[in-house]
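Reopening this ticket.

The earlier resolution said the output was attached, but the attachment link was broken on my side. Pasting everything inline this time so it's all in one place.
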Amino acid sequence: MRRELEPWLAGREVARAELLAPPGPKYANLERAAGQRVLAVRRRGKFIIAPLSGGDELVVHLGMTGSLAPQEPPDHVRVRLHLLGEGPRTLYFRDPRRFGRFLVVRAGDYAALPTLSALGPEPFDPDLTAELFARNLGRSRAPVKAYLLSQRPVAGVGNIYADEALWRAGINPATPAAALTVAQAGALLAALRDVLAESIAANGTTLRDYRRVGGEAGAFYEKLAVYGKGGEPCPRCGEPLARSVLGGRGTVHCPTCQPAPRRRRAAPRPAARREGARRGR
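Inline output:
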């Protein structure tokens, strides 16, 4: 989406931002955009960030069902960004379930956006090595899939791509993040990069709501191996894929290719303590 917006949005002056949703922090400071020029269209994790000529930034997050388009959608339009200059005159922000954000902040001030301020490194950052990724994962005993979705160990990984990458790497999604070895972290990082690169090349994944800037669907849906396919045969071993809920999100994995993590045995209590317990001390 960033790639498709930049050619015609960068360099345009904002005439005004028209809010059609109830005002609130998700749409803060939109009035400040008027009169400023869009200098570029950038991305950080799943946030689109457009620096403005007056020292502000336009920050957009699509949530689960949001979209941006120069053609007016039939419903659920929350913001109209009116533009001056050549090209489409309006950018429409559609968000049926209202999980998205469309707001203006001072450049770099993400106090109102804690997820953005706490994002981990970008997945394609060459400085993100297997060792660094393993250290990032080592900060949490939460299930590795849930921790990936927190955006802290690496930015930009959503539910679809977490399932796909964990399957490719042969890692059970319930494995504690801190339990992954450097080798496993390296395999997962490589799988994440492959899945994300393939999806970007296919213009994303359309299940229901997601649409490209021009209204087209993303084609990576046709390449999904496990996401949304609980009960179907595993593409690798043929065993039925298992569906569960992990961290509140639907999760699919192969019990054979992604075996459950081994539970650590509790350390035995010292003999003196066991003897004292038997005597009622």
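Reporter confirms the inline version is readable. Confidence is low (pLDDT under 50) at residues 272-277. The beta strands are 13-19, 42-44, 47-51, 56-61, 67-69, 77-84, 90-94, 101-106, 242-246, 249-253.
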